[in-house]
Design a protein that fits this description.
seven-stranded parallel beta sheet, 227 residues, alpha/beta
């Protein structure tokens, strides 16, 4: 039974990843609020990754950094503080967690780190300047660390399109917006948290032991296809 550290596993994609791992693994969730679900394999630490000291953990085979932001504004309404906050949440928090837990990951079995980008890092969309800049930095971090930590620790990232979580609720707040979001994607659908968790579970597993430094576009075709 492996141990996985999930940063931000109380809600949304992070919580779906926690649930996907719990039956066969020990999961340590670190976030500002406790998840609604409980399980004998789940340990929770209340912690703000940006302002608090991260808890001491003795072993882990994987680290998932799930916090993110969707801060959509025209460039003339984005403050420097907006850019700094998005960068802190998406990049600095991940760096802090990686630096903290790197020593124990090196001792884990087929250890891996999983980060999160967005389709907006590849597909230019209005009002995404701040989040796209931050997530593009996550992609650079992924490939750089993948090279630096090879062959010991694998590092990958998932870049999802819109996912039905609280974070994206403003984009999916009524039936018309949901219909429009489906129509924007060539596969005529968008993501549920469990879809992302399935990919995360695979990338953390031994089945992905030869995969590192990759950004996986989980995009329902919006980046890959032009129909």
């Amino acid at each position: 039974m492996k141990t996985y550290i999930i940063i931000g596993g109380s809600k949304g994609i992070g919580n779906a990843i926690v649930n996907s791992l719990l039956n066969d693994n020990k999961v340590i969730n670190i976030s500002r609020t406790a998840p609604e679900n409980t399980h004998h394999n789940l340990t929770h630490y209340n912690c703000d990754v940006l302002s608090d000291e991260l808890p001491e953990i003795s072993e882990a085979a994987g680290l998932v950094y799930a916090p993110g932001s969707i801060n959509l504004k025209p460039i003339n309404r984005l403050s420097i503080e907006d850019f700094q906050n998005d960068f802190n949440i998406n990049v600095i928090g991940a760096v802090k967690a990686i630096q903290k837990y790197l020593p124990i990951l090196k001792n884990g079995h087929n250890p891996s780190i999983l980060l999160f980008s967005t389709v907006a890092a590849k597909l230019g969309m209005p009002f995404h300047a701040s989040v796209a800049a931050a997530k593009s930095a996550v992609e650079g971090l992924t490939i750089s660390l993948g090279a630096e930590l090879a062959p010991t620790i694998r590092v990958n990232a998932i870049a999802p399109t819109v996912t039905n979580t609280d974070l994206a609720s403003k984009l999916l707040r009524n039936d018309k917006m949901i219909e429009n979001m489906n129509e924007r994607h060539p596969m005529k659908t968008f993501l549920q948290p469990e879809n992302v968790a399935d990919m995360a579970h695979f990338l953390l597993s031994d089945k992905a032991s030869k995969i590192s430094g990759q950004i996986f576009e989980l995009d329902c075709g919006i980046v890959s296809f032009k129909l």
